[in-house]
TrEMBL record:
Residues 1-27 form the signal peptide. Its main location: other. This is Sugar ABC transporter substrate-binding protein. Belongs to the bacterial solute-binding protein 2 family. Residues 29-50 are annotated as: Disordered. CDD domains: PBP1_ABC_sugar_binding-like.
Amino acid sequence: MNPIAAPFSRRVAPALAVATAAVLALAGCSSSSGGKKSEEGTADASAGKASTPRMTIAMVTHAPSGDTFWDTIRKGAEAAAAKDNVKLIYSNDETAGDQANLVQNAIDQKVDGIAVTLAKPDALKDVMAKAEKAGIPVVGLNAGMTAWKEQGLLSFFGQDESVSGQALGTKLNSTGAKHALCVVHAQGDVNLEERCAGVKKTFSGKTDVLYVNGADMPSVKSTITAKLKQDTTIDEMVTLAAPIALTAVQAVSDAGSKAKIATFDLNKELVSAVEKGTIEFAVDQQPYLQGYLSVDALWLYKNNGNYSGGGEEPVLTGPAFVDKSNIDSIAAFAAKGTR
């Protein structure tokens, strides 16, 4: 381990941070290839490929299997790992307890750094303390903006979900919508709950919340359909993930509803839906960037002592609205699976 890595608590972060974005020069190199060794503690990324000593980083997320959003995060992490001469160990589990076990596995393997999502922070609190005790630096991404500092993480990369929800609610005020239905597909996930709360805070119309089982798309479809048939005043639906939005399109059709659909997050199929107009707009938090910056930040910390955000402020990757006015500029990247 680099001697600067212990102790690593954000509480000793220097006031001056070096922006991680300064090294966003992607290289198409294999993450398993090596390079000549450089002096420990010296950042050396000549020709777009680090020649610093090989390090191992574990990324542990709460992602469900086969979700394209999380595939995009992983692609970003793999791109940074390839550039930084990093061995990346990626694992995921939706169940908070099992996710904590995966973090413990990373600690037991004595990895050089951990990137983790804190969708249910209380369930990971103890294992975060164990990582700190072991002298392993940890950064957060995507979920856990309200908890990363108190759990001693170095940095956080993502969007403020409350702010993004409020931005969406404000945008709805300009669409003429009067009654919104916010669909939560994983009850208890802090990110999702904050999004709906944000929408409700700024949307001038009525906002209802509907809980569905995001692991069962036929159930999602039937639950939304039933709600739309029950309450025909709903004229706007807000979903919190691209697959749920695409299923909601089918539900609107089945219910004979005229409700429009706005959503959080993108994938290739959702980009097509925005182009066609079946999805009104999406809030993009740039998941590729979250994965990339998380790995790169740990490399920078080990090799150059940098703290992204100064160890005190999150590094925001969103929100940004994607609609018909700008979809053409994003579609090519989405087709590659990087937006």
